[in-house]
């Protein structure tokens, strides 16, 4: 027995949006690695200790870069699930929202690594909340529609 999955027209936007998140995560990993090298924080230490960060601007910036990357990773399950579910009805919207969210993470990271963590949101990083909220609404509506149509 074989089955087929039919992707909706415009699903390429979804693929592009999700692949953009992968590129951003890769870029963030390079940023973290660069700050790790500059700070001298060795593996497997995840963050600089408070005393290290207080004594060294490089160690503090490493913590900022690491936290920006970790925060992005923490959001990834939510982004992937909501993008894929919303894309069943709204593939173009889901793809663009996912891509916009990913690009907002670049601004978030650049703001965070200024040395003033408050700038993670003031440099445009907060813009990522809009597509995330749209994906939550779109995926919720899509799931509800699917449930109602199968009843």
UniProtKB/TrEMBL annotation:
It is a multi-pass membrane protein. Keywords: Membrane, Transmembrane, Transmembrane helix. It is found in: Membrane. The keyword Transmembrane applies. The chain crosses the membrane at residues 12-32, 90-110, 130-148. One of its GO terms (cellular component) is endoplasmic reticulum. One of its GO terms (molecular function) is glutathione peroxidase activity. InterPro entries: MAPEG (IPR050997), MAPEG-like_dom_sf (IPR023352), Membr-assoc_MAPEG (IPR001129). It holds the Pfam family MAPEG. This is Glutathione transferase. It comes from Suillus luteus UH-Slu-Lm8-n1.
């Amino acid at each position: 027995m074989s089955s087929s999955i039919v992707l909706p027209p415009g699903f390429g936007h979804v693929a592009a949006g999700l692949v953009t998140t992968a590129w951003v995560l890769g870029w963030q990993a390079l940023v973290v690695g660069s700050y790790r090298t500059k700070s001298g924080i060795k593996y497997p230490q995840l963050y600089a200790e408070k005393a290290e960060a207080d004594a060294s601007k490089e160690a503090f910036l490493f913590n900022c870069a690491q936290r920006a990357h970790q925060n992005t990773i923490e959001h990834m399950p939510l982004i992937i699930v909501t993008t894929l579910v919303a894309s069943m009805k709204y593939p173009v919207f889901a793809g663009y929202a996912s891509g916009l969210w990913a690009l907002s993470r670049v601004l978030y990271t650049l703001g965070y690594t200024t040395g003033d963590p408050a700038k993670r949101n003031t440099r445009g990083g907060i813009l990522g909340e809009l597509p995330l909220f749209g994906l939550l609404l779109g995926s919720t509506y899509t799931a509800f529609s699917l449930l109602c149509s199968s009843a």
